[in-house]
């Protein structure tokens, strides 16, 4: 069994909650209130900016130049996706939110930045993997079950598309190679990091659905 199959199995209860979350169910049905989608897009632009830094940082810690290049390309793509949100959705919806990160986004981005900086390269890669894999799975699930027409089609197509699928495959391959050469204690930490980041993916969607604010 591949290491990533084990990760998937362990975090499956979290993934199931993500798929069934009203944010994704309503996105699929095209009934998600636009206010919640706008909040999500704004939070995601803040997320992607830090995610790009976490990817680049993890890349600098890779053991070879092909993995460095791969992570730098992921980082570049994250910046391009963030810019596309501004050119597309920010204009379309006239989004002018300035509230900054909600607690959910804050928790997730800071976790990824800390893991990519202070954990081992292997653990950093495991922490970054749910961002790829869960979005791919959610994108495919929504694409296959969506109401048509759907006002959120662009978003759906981005994560169900072939370019994104290729990136996800590459990230999975790197993670499996690292696990093959890792000690048992490193693999345990990788599993914990994967699970934590999966939970934070849930927290991020839930935060958007609740239009989460700081309590104070
Ligand atoms: C919160 C979040 N996780 C993952 C992705 C895709 O990498 C994204 N755009 N936003
Ligand atoms: C995982 C991910 N999410 C948005 S961009 C990106 C890197 C894809 O190359």
From TrEMBL:
Q: Which reaction does it catalyse?
A: 4-amino-5-aminomethyl-2-methylpyrimidine + H2O = 4-amino-5-hydroxymethyl-2-methylpyrimidine + NH4(+); thiamine + H2O = 5-(2-hydroxyethyl)-4-methylthiazole + 4-amino-5-hydroxymethyl-2-methylpyrimidine + H(+)
Which GO BP terms sit in this record?
Answer: thiamine biosynthetic process; thiamine diphosphate biosynthetic process
Q: Give, as in the UniProt entry, the pathway in which the protein acts.
A: Cofactor biosynthesis; thiamine diphosphate biosynthesis
- The enzyme's E.C. designation: 3.5.99.2
Q: Which GO terms describe its molecular function?
A: thiaminase activity
Top-level EC class? hydrolase
GO cellular component entries: cytosol
Record's InterPro entries?
Haem_Oase-like_multi-hlx (IPR016084), Thiaminase-2/PQQC (IPR004305), Thiaminase_II (IPR027574), Thiamine_Salvage_TenA (IPR050967)
Q: Which UniProt keywords apply?
A: Hydrolase, Thiamine biosynthesis
The residue ranges of the Thiaminase-2/PQQC domain are 10-210
Q: Which Pfam families match?
A: TENA_THI-4
Could you say which protein family the record assigns here? Belongs to the TenA family.
What does the record give as the function of this protein? Catalyzes an amino-pyrimidine hydrolysis reaction at the C5' of the pyrimidine moiety of thiamine compounds, a reaction that is part of a thiamine salvage pathway.
What PANTHER family is this protein classified in?
BIFUNCTIONAL TH2 PROTEIN, SI:CH1073-67J19.1-RELATED
Q: What is this protein called?
A: Aminopyrimidine aminohydrolase
What is the scientific name of the source organism?
A: Dyadobacter psychrotolerans
Q: What high-level taxonomic lineage is stated for the organism?
A: Bacteria, Pseudomonadati, Bacteroidota, Cytophagia, Cytophagales
What gene is it encoded by? tenA
